[in-house]
Automatic annotation (TrEMBL):
Zn(2+) binds at residues 58, 60, 205, 293. HAMAP family: MTA_SAH_deamin (MF_01281). Substrate binds at residues 86, 178, 208, 293. Its cofactor is Zn(2+). Keywords: Hydrolase, Metal-binding, Zinc. The lineage of its organism: Archaea, Methanobacteriati, Methanobacteriota, Archaeoglobi, Archaeoglobales. Binds 1 zinc ion per subunit. Belongs to the metallo-dependent hydrolases superfamily. MTA/SAH deaminase family. The gene is mtaD. Catalyzes the deamination of 5-methylthioadenosine and S-adenosyl-L-homocysteine into 5-methylthioinosine and S-inosyl-L-homocysteine, respectively. Is also able to deaminate adenosine. Its EC number is 3.5.4.28, 3.5.4.31. It holds the Pfam family Amidohydro_1. It catalyses: S-methyl-5'-thioadenosine + H2O + H(+) = S-methyl-5'-thioinosine + NH4(+); S-adenosyl-L-homocysteine + H2O + H(+) = S-inosyl-L-homocysteine + NH4(+). Residues 49-394 form the Amidohydrolase-related domain. This is 5-methylthioadenosine/S-adenosylhomocysteine deaminase.
């Protein structure tokens, strides 16, 4: 008898959809079978599509609070506006902003997210209470100031020691230097040494805009990826967000060092940063995951939208309709996100974490010739009916069991005042 049995669903297994039953024991997938399985809780999934839940591999969840406040700006102008507003954010704001983000993520089938932001204790509390998985880091920037470098490292490390492994291991706490243009090479070198000593990971923005590449060349005479490689920073414990402006040699470096890349097509297009070379990266065997970035540059946390934009933008970048195939986009949204952060999830396979989304057919999925194409090109997110995270049901019939949604909307609406005055 399994704790949960999902019977006879159309399951995304090994890159294709096949009919199967899934037995969950504790927080893992214990059995994939052709026959009906017995469970304390049973889902009759004959009419459902079952996928491994999504992993949002790069976000700033609480930026929901700044959604829609700085629009139609390129990254540098946008960042100036956002940084001014972020000074107003209190720990309590971050808690409610993150909760709002988590509600949106759960509803589009996201079981886990990787977040780089401020007041991270609140993000950890919110993720823990809501029952989702999170890889979290305090966003550090030394800006060439030695005293600030020490303070930032202290905050980042205190966060890791307080939260790594919390909530039955659902929280993974890592290092988060912001970017090569806000952190000095000396600081980044120290971060890498500390991450290696603690056997933890690093999440950082790299090569997002042409401006960044030119700025780093001006300051250090080389490009961001080459600079990071020269200081010994690039490794398999490093996840870079964006990687939009990379030449062939830089792609080789990332591949050889085992660095993972998080692609955020909506944010990159909205801030007019560019379109990353995802087709080339995937062909080379680089792990490319998918991330929404923050709600102030997206403006939503809907992974169905993100998958569709990921696919369409590549078709235009390479001017070929098969630039990145739909099944590969689905893999980027699931397995690759988990893999980038060293978590055994994102696949419907025995031994993998039981992070599973149970979908039903919405109006957008009629007629359904192929679940893969349906999910990547037609679905809206409303298809996600139930979400299981770490073997627990977090959303049932689109009702989130772990949080009070109405209270979150009330709190957040009241916070608006301080940003417009
Ligand atoms: C210091 S915490 C993280 C920091 O990053 C800012 N941010 C959000 N989105 C982006 C992006 O696309 N590129 C660079 N920086 C970004 C966020 O506002 C926080 O200040
Ligand atoms: Zn970001």
């Amino acid at each position: 008898m399994y704790s949960i049995a999902i019977n006879n669903g159309l399951c995304f297994i090994n890159g294709e959809f096949t009919r199967a039953s899934i037995g969950i024991e504790e927080n893992k997938i214990a059995r994939i079978a052709k026959e009906v399985l017995k469970g304390e809780i049973e889902f009759d999934a004959r009419e459902n599509i079952i996928i491994p839940a999504f992993f949002n591999a790069h976000t700033h969840a609480a930026m929901t609070l700044l959604r829609g406040i700085a629009e139609d700006m390129e990254l540098n102008v946008w960042l100036k506006n956002v940084w001014r507003l972020e000074r107003l954010l209190t720990p309590e704001d971050i808690y409610w902003g993150t909760m709002l983000a988590i509600v949106e993520m759960i509803k589009s089938g996201i079981a886990g997210f990787s977040d780089l932001y401020i007041h991270m204790d609140e993000v950890a509390k919110a993720a823990g209470e809501a029952g989702v998985r999170a890889v979290l880091c305090y966003g550090m920037a030394d800006r060439g100031d030695e005293e600030k470098a020490k303070r930032e490292l202290d905050i980042g490390e205190r966060f890791i020691s307080d939260w790594d492994g919390a909530f039955d291991g659902r929280i993974k706490a890592i290092y988060g230097p912001h970017a090569p243009y806000t952190c000095t090479p000396e600081f980044l070198k120290t971060v890498k040494e500390r991450a290696d000593t603690l056997e933890t990971m690093i999440h950082i923005h790299v090569s997002e805009t042409q401006w960044e590449v030119e700025e780093i060349k001006k300051q250090y005479g080389t490009t961001p990826v080459r600079l990071l490689d020269e200081i010994g920073f690039l490794d398999s414990n490093v996840v870079i967000a964006h990687g939009v402006w990379l030449d062939d040699e830089e792609l080789e470096i990332l591949k050889n060092r085992g660095v993972s890349v998080v692609h955020s097509p909506v944010s990159n297009m909205k801030l007019s940063s560019g379109i990353a070379r995802v087709r080339d990266m995937l062909k080379m065997g680089i792990t490319v995951a998918l991330g929404t970035d923050g709600a102030a540059s997206n403006n939503s946390y809907n992974f169905f939208q993100e998958m569709k934009f990921a696919s369409l933008s590549q078709k235009i970048k390479y001017m070929r309709a098969d630039a990145v195939r739909a099944e590969d986009v689905l893999k980027m949204a699931t397995e690759n996100g988990y893999r980038a952060y060293g978590i055994l999830g994102g696949r419907l396979e025995e031994g993998y974490l039981a992070d599973i989304a149970i979908l039903s057919k919405s109006q957008h999925l009629y007629p359904l010739y192929s679940p893969t194409y349906g999910l990547v090109y037609s679905a809206s997110g409303e298809e996600v009916q139930h979400l299981i995270v770490d073997g627990e049901i977090v959303m049932e019939d689109r009702v989130i069991l772990t949080v009070d949604e109405e209270k979150i909307y009330d709190k957040v609406e009241k916070l608006k005042e301080k940003f417009i005055s």
